[in-house]
Write a structure and sequence with these properties.
The protein is an alpha+beta fold. It folds into two domains: 87 residues, Phosphoribosyl-AMP cyclohydrolase (Ubiquitin-like (UB roll)), CATH 3.10.20; 89 residues, Helix Hairpins, CATH 1.10.287. Helix content is 44%, strand content 18%. A four-stranded mixed sheet has the order 2-1-6-5, covered by helices on one side. A two-stranded antiparallel ribbon has the order 3-4. Strand 1 and strand 2 form a beta hairpin.
Length: 200
């Protein structure tokens, strides 16, 4: 829907319409906000998702205090013109509780991101007896070597057609890759961004 003048802001007594915010790359639903005519106009002008705060009675641009802006990719309305679907590129976490999505907060980051956080904490705290600590202490050459070893073992199991072992070796490969990413200061978001650019 391109003619936003057809939106039905009067359907609800408060003059607001719900806006479902969805990650344009993963299609994960991130949050639900409410928009007034003014916040929609600002969203269209700035390219950043701007809502109307029902508690503060004012416009607010998501990320204006946290820096976690929502860059708008597309805006569409439902068949009745009273709900918006806004696809965005999130810059950081969306929920104020520190998770990627406001829905299913306990699972919203996914296991890979949760594991990346654990690895980052291991890097910062270096607890004794931790295999991850041992890897970080050994340095980039040792970590990169492990990634190479796990990649070779993954290839071997794939060629053999051993599905169970393939899953095992790919898990090792993913883990060691995350350790290397942490060592080199590369985030999952950066990898996602690169993959997204390749498949636009």
């Amino acid at each position: 829907m391109k003619n936003f003048n057809e939106l039905d802001f009067e359907k609800n007594k408060d003059g607001l319409i719900p806006a479902i915010i969805q990650d344009s790359r993963t299609l994960r639903v991130l949050m639900l906000g409410y928009m007034s005519k003014g916040s929609l106009a600002k969203t269209l002008e700035s390219g950043l998702a701007t809502f109307y705060s029902r508690s503060r009675k004012q416009l607010w641009t998501k990320g204006e205090t946290s820096g976690n802006f929502l860059k708008v990719v597309s805006i569409d309305a439902d068949c009745d013109g009273d709900t918006l679907l806004i696809k965005v590129e999130p810059k950081g976490v969306v929920c104020h509780k520190g998770t990627l999505s406001c829905f299913g907060a306990e699972n919203s980051e996914g296991f890979t991101r949760t594991l990346a956080k654990v690895i980052s904490e291991r890097n910062q705290n270096r607890p004794e007896g931790s295999y991850t600590t041992k890897l970080f202490s050994a340095g980039v050459s040792a970590i990169a070597q492990k990634v190479g070893e796990e990649a070779v073992e993954t290839v071997i199991e794939a060629v053999k057609g051993n599905r169970e072992r393939l899953i095992y070796e790919m898990s090792d490969l993913l883990y060691h890759s995350l350790v290397l990413m942490e060592n080199q200061g590369v985030s999952i978001s950066e990898i996602e961004e690169e993959l997204y650019k390749r498949h636009k």
